[in-house]
Amino acid sequence: MRHGFVDSGAGQLHYVEAGKGPPLLLIPHAGRSSRMYRDLIGELSSDFRVVSIDVPGTGASAPLPAGEHGIAEIADWLVEGLDALGLQSLDIFGLHGGNKLGGSIAGRHPSRVHKFVYAGQSHSIIPDKARRDEIFRKTPSIRSVIERADRPLPFWAGQFREMADIWWDEATLADLDDPAARRVAVERVLDGLQAFMDRPQFYRAAFAYDMKGDLALIRAPTLILELTTPKEDREVGRQGDALLGIIPNATLETLESPDVYAVTLEDRAAEVAGILRRFLLGE
To answer: Which PANTHER family does the UniProt entry name for this protein (predicted)?
Structure first.
């Protein structure tokens, strides 16, 4: 795996890449970095030139510039990074916060995207903005970031508690003999520290984003990968069928998980790689 930096309007962007073949961009989840794709990059590097760019304000990339910046502007900074890497046309996989950036690129820069994978848990892919905002405001981790962002002590305390919860999570403690499990916990905390200051701004951008409008503009063949859990089925409901009516050339696949932390699928890299190969390569 190779590391490097490219320039953008937001400052330098850190990226990792591996492999040779058709280019594939993996956009991380909000508040996470390319670290979350370490194993997935390894699984896919035999078939693709896999690139993952840390979004501004996360990982080793430059912080978000001062002021408010929308999803489209942040997505365009990623496009500038792709230009610097010589990637004019490629496949894109966007997960959770990354699906919004990927959807913005695919909708507004259609000539650049060969195929697009729009992935996320049901709450993350709700096409109706009012409904999505309602659900997001009920999500404790998002609500605490947004509501406490302008109150330094509660925000500071809330972020520390979130990272402590990762460190002392029962599942993590049960797997302390597993180096891979320890690595995932450490990397989640590292990503949390590096994205600490800019998470509120990204979430505000996500709240303001007209996701449905960009998705309707996508012309690339698109796989909707809906990550389902029993809890989300009860509280949110599945969204894939609604998206099929919005994205012109889309297919739907679901990936079921139990009611545990399953946002980034780091423990299912081989399974996710198989799904991507089937769709992107036609296997």
So the answer is: MONOACYLGLYCEROL LIPASE
